[in-house]
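pinned: reference chain
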Amino acid sequence: MTVGNMESAELFDAGKKGRGLRATKELNAGEVVFAEASFSAVVFDSLATQVCHSCFRHQVKLHRCAQCKFAQYCDRTCQTACWDEHKQECGAIKKIGKAPSENVRLAARVLWRIHRDTGIVSDTQLISVDKLEDHVADLPEEELKQLNRDVQSFLEYWSYGRKQHSVDYILHLFGIIKCNAFTMSDQRGLQAVGVGLFPNLCLVNHDCWPNCTIILNHGNQSALSSALHSQRRIELRALGKISEGQELTVSYVDFLNLSADRQKKLKERFHFECTCEHCSQHIKDDLMMAAAESEGNKPSADKVKEVTAFSKECLEKIERARVEKDYQEVVKLCRECLEKQENVLAGTNLYKLRVLSVASEVLSYMRSFPEAAGCARKMVEGYIKLYHPNNAQLGMAIMRAGVTHWHAGQIEVGHEMICKAYGILMITHGPNHAITRDLESMRTQTEMELKMFKKNEHAYHSMRDAALKSQPKVSSS
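pinned: its structure tokens
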């Protein structure tokens, strides 16, 4: 699909939800509804020297803009590609002597682009950026104060002599960014590295159990089609069959929260009451708070309450230890918590899943692969009962669990999980995404190892042990 092609979607009046997008034809699972390049985007302040400001790829060595000394690029190609976007920013940074915050930089890039393209950059853009909702009137006092501080910083940064705008208009622009900006990841899709604005994507409404997913795809630079070389673009992909005329929806929040918690987040962040079926009917809330059950026996309500409170407190300690990189303490706390949860909280209970997630991640980092694999397997079993079968986060979790089992020498389970993850990510990410291509390689490799394992199990394990011993041990500090 070419970037900007909107033949499969159209704008319509979605009633109480306001504007929305609906399908103009029947769509199948994995089909790209539309792809859209960012209107404007910036790298996070914290990663400004680690990520290319043009293509948003992580690079070990970046080349700094000789003029402003702030923007960083992979090479001359990336710098040239970004010059139209950086030109005025470069002069403004030189003028004030330093780069402002990412919010101010994004607002300025948006406004410069509105001036250049009158807010509509192509025939396929369905709405002008400054016509998007800002929800400024709905902001709590503290958030409004911060927005006004950003406006003042912006006015200092905005180049002297350029077209001036009222404070209200600039505030409107910051409100639009606050409500509509999309977090952007690096080339592997594993770390958030920046933020951007995608006008057509902003028109897709929320549902906690959506029929579409958004994926950042920086493109396959080796592809023959130049359409696949586009940088900083999103793809809206169908998660299953969508009928002609059906509204297109995505989830603005992670489904793995109780319906009341999701509604609270949506109200605070996006200023609307979620009335989707899963929220209205509290679907899967019972599973997310379920107690363990063995042969018809359940723990008492008091016991469940006690272990839930212990789990909440323990998760706070785990997070503090993780921030401090005290991974031995993280593992110790996780083990204590999981032991306390045993036979009390069900495998789908959110607090159990959160501990299992941290435990599997940290144990893998510390190369305790057999124990990490056990935690990852239990976590995936819970996720499968809760997430949409084609959820991207589910696919990523199964992929990580598969790799952990592979490292643990549990090649059959590892291969099975990697194949399952590949099936999901082919729908959510597509065949040209870097993660899917990596997963395809992993699938091939584990398949070869599986054949070797079945042919001579002893020889296979001897080979693996020798390979693992030759790898450097990861420090836990």
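why pinned: Residues 221-230, 472-477 have pLDDT under 50 and may be disordered. The first strand starts at residue 9 and ends at 13.
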